[in-house]
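User: I'm preparing a small set of examples for a lab meeting where we compare how different chains pack in three dimensions. I only have the primary sequence for this one, and I'd like the structure in token form so I can line it up with the others. Please keep the answer compact; I'll paste it straight into my notes.
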Amino acid sequence: MSEKQPPPAQYNSADPAAPDDQPEHPGDAVDSAQALHIGFLRSGMSTSELWANYVSMGGHLTEQQLLDAMRDGHEIGSHDHDMAAQALNEHFIDVGLDHLVPYYYQLGQKRD
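Assistant: Understood. Below is the structure token output for the 112-residue chain.
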């Protein structure tokens, strides 16, 4: 029998506590966590909304793991980065913007 997991902490993209030295555009990010974090902050999505869209794209992380990756810089693989980036980018397209979040290969990082 599996243990019941506590619900993930909510992370409100509409009221972020972003560091002052963080780039404004996700395309200027230096790594996966920063690109996802900036994209999420600009999206206005809730963590639950992003996570549901991310899972529908084929993402494998729990909501808490995705939150930790964005908020705390926990490392995730190229597949999960790309699924989160796709979920964010589809949101941006839905609101009339372009793909703002770079995919893993666009960050210049080695694919895993």
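A couple of notes for your slides: The helical segments are 32-43, 47-57, 63-72, 78-94. Residues 1-20 have pLDDT under 50 and may be disordered.

User: Perfect, thanks.
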